[in-house]
Amino acid sequence: MVDTDFTVRFWGVRGSIPAPGPATVRYGGNTSCVEMRCGNRLLIFDGGSGLRELGEALKATGRRVDLDIFYSHTHLDHIVGLPFFAPGYERGNRIRFWAGHLKPNSDIKSVLDKMMSAPLFPVPIEILEARTDFRDFVAGETLTPHPGIKLVTAPLNHPNGATGYRVEFAGKSVAYITDTEHHAGRSDPEVLKLMRNADVAIYDSTYTDEEYPRHRHWGHSTWEEGVRLATQANVKQFVIFHHDPGHDDNFMDQVAADAAKARLGTIVAHEGLIMRL
Questions:
Q1: How far apart are CA 182 and CA 198, in angstroms?
Q2: What is the overall mean pLDDT for the chain?
């Protein structure tokens, strides 16, 4: 019997920089890392500081790991977890790294290699003992990493570029759209394409509409814009993601309350949240 379970788990929900401490306990302080399981296939979206805890959980199972990591982009908060990802240091594991925003000027292996080199890090990427593959594409391409799994991609509006993803499996769909800035007064057609009729849409909601004018051109959006897009795209469930490091648990509680009123079923992502489609 074919396994058609589709689950999403959040290991890191914060943006820009990790924000650990007593003020962020309920929602979490780790940066972007989202696990999606499509049947027996494991897809990871972004490798921020949340990737370390995901790696520890995978190691604890005692089973070999075969997975794909899809990067939205390679700013530090989205890649910093790789040197501390335990499965990367175990022979017999296999990891494929994907990125769609770097060509033609660079490639994903070069960027990760630069992060894991002196004087930034004491050991090079070659220390990883897992079998690794590095796969660059151009945002806008459609990917089929495994039979039955389709990824629609699109370019996002972010400094140095970024990629949004729509994962389709077993008749269900999840849009993962982080680190993108909206254009005031008009909907982003690339974002709408990824969100259209999705079962779940995870969206960069770093700011509120009130805060946004002070952060224009920083490459991020607002939860209110996310609600507008989700409504226009007929999304079933909207998820607020990539929380500003300065937004503590009390602030996020208020966002959750306001967002639930604005659109029924809207939730704020927190570390440990599991969604079953």
A1: 19
A2: 97
